[in-house]
């Protein structure tokens, strides 16, 4: 993550020397190995060089930060999230910055790699690695560094609480499991959102998927290339037809049915009966009536539980997904979602010493 030091020369002079030394030793180490990005104004670099008893490698790193300040300051301006280190004051969110006092920023775990907390560490972790690797240049992002942690099912709340107590920077991405944009949030989603709002540790970022699940980020055109699509031609025909009719009817790209289709299990008239409210029922009816003649008795097959593993193991499907990630319609749907969490992982080059 970006750590932007916002302290005056006078505040540097009056700061607790031990805390100042501890913070910059750890922050420079994290910057040097690429876990985080440290941004320090040129005048403050000069003050630090005159004030602190630093190792030669840290002095070299500070001088490099001074030379790179124009570029790194631009990253701060563009970021959706960064840490602003102040001389004092409470930990709080101000705009796109999480403000933290110098003494609190000396927490021993703060400079570990940021955590990506997901429901399946292996499969989902590889998916997000592929996603971020391939959109980083498209979205003009810096190098990204993170580690994944498993928080399967309801356990994600427990794991999030533990990592917050540990003082880690945590981004928890979770499925919404809703069948429409009007669906009520699940107990898990509500607890994660409330944890983010109520916790005094403001470096916890709960991020819901923009659709039903992680699979809904993958375009239908890509899913249709996977082995699980073989023999599912009838469902695919309906889904492609529905997408075409949505475009013809002028439905907003952010409101497409594919975002909320249950890719694992499919959809039937029973889903209408499970609508959480009248508004959701009307939304489902409006979408499905574009291709379904009898809403009281229909079934659209799903693709099973292995869509993401199959995608990650199918080279030509990954190539097509990589191509579609650059399409304006895909970026319109998912750019904001990606930017909400990608900047949490902003890091840099590993500087060898």
Word description of this protein:
There is one protein chain. The chain has 353 residues and is α/β, with parallel strands linked by helices. It has 3 domains: 2-106, no CATH class; 115-213 and 332-345, Response regulator (Rossmann fold, 3-Layer(aba) Sandwich); 216-306, no CATH class. The chain has 15 helices and 11 strands. The strands form 3 sheets. Strands 2-1-3-5-4 form a 5-stranded mixed sheet, sandwiched between helices. The chain has a 4-stranded parallel sheet with strand order 7-6-8-9, sandwiched between helices. A hairpin with a 2-residue loop joins strand 4 and strand 5. Helix 3 (42-51) packs antiparallel against helix 4 (56-67) and helix 7 (155-165) runs parallel beside helix 8. The longest helix has 16 residues, at 17-32. It starts with a strand and ends in an 11-residue tail after the last helix. The mean pLDDT is 95.
Provide the residue-averaged pLDDT: 95
From the N-terminal CA to the C-terminal CA, the straight-line distance is: 22 Å
Total count of helical runs of at least 4 residues = 15
Share of helix among residues? 40-55%
Overall tally of domains:
3
CATH topology of the largest domain: Rossmann fold
In sequence order, what are the helices and strands, one letter per element? EHHEHHHEEEEHEHEHEHHEHHEHHH
| CATH C-level of the largest domain | Alpha Beta
The rough form would be described as elongated
Radius of gyration: 23 Å
Kindly name the structural category. Answer: alpha/beta
Q: What name goes with the CATH superfamily of the largest domain?
A: Response regulator
Which CATH architecture of the largest domain is right? 3-Layer(aba) Sandwich
Strand sequence of the main sheet, in spatial order?
Answer: 2-1-3-5-4
- The low-pLDDT segments are none
Q: Strand tally, please?
A: 11
Major pleated sheet: 5 strands, mixed
């Amino acid at each position: 993550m970006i750590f932007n030091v916002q302290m005056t020369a006078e505040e540097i002079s009056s700061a607790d020397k031990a805390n100042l030394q501890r913070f910059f030793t750890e922050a420079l180490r994290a910057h040097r190995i690429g876990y985080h990005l440290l941004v320090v104004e040129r005048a403050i670099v000069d003050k630090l060089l005159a004030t602190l008893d630093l190792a030669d490698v840290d002095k070299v790193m500070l001088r490099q930060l001074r030379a790179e300040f124009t570029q790194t300051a631009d990253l701060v301006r563009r970021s959706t999230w960064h840490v602003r280190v102040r001389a004092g004051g409470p930990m709080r969110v101000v705009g796109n910055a999480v403000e933290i006092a110098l003494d609190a920023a000396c927490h021993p775990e703060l400079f570990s790699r940021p955590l990506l907390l997901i429901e399946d560490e292996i499969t989902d972790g590889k998916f997000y690695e592929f996603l971020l690797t391939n959109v980083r240049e498209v979205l003009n992002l810096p190098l990204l560094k993170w580690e994944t942690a498993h928080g399967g099912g309801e356990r994600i709340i427990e794991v999030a609480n533990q990592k917050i107590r540990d003082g880690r920077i945590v981004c928890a991405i979770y499925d919404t499991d809703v069948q429409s944009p009007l669906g009520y949030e699940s107990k898990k989603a509500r607890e994660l959102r409330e944890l983010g709002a109520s916790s005094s540790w403001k470096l916890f970022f709960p991020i819901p998927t923009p659709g039903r699940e992680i699979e809904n980020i993958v375009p239908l055109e890509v899913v249709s290339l996977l082995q699980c699509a073989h023999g599912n031609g009838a469902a695919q025909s309906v889904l492609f037809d529905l997408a075409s009719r949505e475009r013809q009817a002028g439905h907003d790209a952010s409101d497409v049915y594919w975002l909320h289709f249950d890719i694992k299990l499919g959809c039937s008239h029973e889903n209408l009966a499970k609508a959480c409210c009248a508004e959701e029922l009307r939304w489902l009816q409006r979408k499905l009536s574009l291709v379904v003649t009898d809403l009281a008795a229909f079934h659209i097959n799903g693709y099973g539980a292995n869509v993401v593993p199959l995608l990650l193991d199918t080279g030509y499907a990954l190539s097509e997904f990589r191509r579609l990630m650059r399409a304006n319609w895909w970026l319109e749907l998912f750019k904001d979602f990606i930017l909400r969490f990608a900047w949490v992982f902003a890091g840099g080059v590993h500087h060898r010493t």
